[in-house]
Amino acid sequence: MVVNHDDLFRRSTQYRFWSFTRPQLAELRIVANKKGIQKTEERIKELDDSLPETKLVRENQDQFQFVHPDEEKRLISYYARRCKELAAFFHLSAQVRSTAIMYLYKFYLYHSVMEYHPGNIMLTCLFLSAKVENHFIGINTFCKNIPKTTPEAILKNEYLILETMKFSLQCHHPFQPLYGFFLDIQQTLPKLDFNRLGKNYDGARELVNESLFTDLPFLYTPPQIALACLWLCDDVLVEKYLAKKFGLVKKTEQENEDALQYYNKLMVIIRHCADVVRKEALDPSQEESKTISAKIKLCLEPIRFGRKLMKQNGEQAAKRSASITEGNDEKRIKLETE
């Protein structure tokens, strides 16, 4: 019996614990967002009543801006992109980088950015991924290369992340099945121009990297994602390869009909995956991330909201005072000239 990569994936904890439908993903994120709002409201209740800022926070609580689920997803994607850059800085492999990004996305299916800032969680995910994927970096070396980071800050979130992921640490990515298709296509289509295939393989690897910033890893298997990325680079090649693998022209009419049914079903999946890679890979700007992060800081420390209101009130009072003074000066000058 031959066991392929798809079989291995369907027997994995990743498939059992981390495979969802789109509605399920949306529901998980809504629940996590509500959890974050509830946690913020608890922080507001716990503020010191003796502080003037606390009074302002409670009087203006209806103006408090919480983070929406879509904003959460975009900010997480922003830090997932930064994780990719940091992994490149440490010369970590694609496997380590991809695993760290998946840890980050998995964590925030059950937690909100209003509970834990993704900038901190991302660093722990990368450090943990390096250990899991046998590319260990010492904690002191890791922190030394990242400004304003301490070993304690990295390690304090490690168990929380492990617990959230149900201690399911192995991640299956599309890189390995993509390489398998690269080899199998050469055997299945021996007359194919190798330069054409090599160029498509390199392009597909880039698209696999982009697929990490979508929901595809939660929705489809790694081989399906790999085929979709290769199809985006050369649809004619992939369809010819699959037609030959399914043996569409060499079987009896009934067998051909069954094979065609499976082929068409797979092509629907491939086209859908390809559409998601093209349209849904998130890459938020730094400016957008700053705007969302500003809201998160207020949620994590509601007393900041009170200080912000005090500052605004002070500025408004100063403007009113300046306006009154200016008006009095104008009256005095007018009287003197008369």
TrEMBL record:
Give the GO cellular component terms, alphabetically: transcription factor TFIIK complex
Any idea which UniProt keywords this protein has? Cyclin, Kinase, Transferase
Taxonomically, the superkingdom here is: Eukaryota
Tell me which residues make up the Cyclin-like domain: 81-163
Where is the segment annotated Disordered?
Answer: 311-338
Give me the stretches of Basic and acidic residues compositional bias. 328-338
What SMART domains would the database entry show? CYCLIN
- Entry's Gene3D superfamilies? Cyclin-like
GO molecular function list: cyclin-dependent protein serine/threonine kinase regulator activity; kinase activity
**Protein's GO biological process:** cellular response to nitrogen starvation; nucleotide-excision repair; positive regulation of Atg1/ULK1 kinase complex assembly; positive regulation of autophagy; regulation of transcription by RNA polymerase II; transcription initiation at RNA polymerase II promoter
**Sequence similarity:** Belongs to the cyclin family.
Protein name according to UniProt: Cyclin associated with protein kinase Kin28p
Q: Which organism is it from?
A: Ogataea parapolymorpha (strain ATCC 26012 / BCRC 20466 / JCM 22074 / NRRL Y-7560 / DL-1)
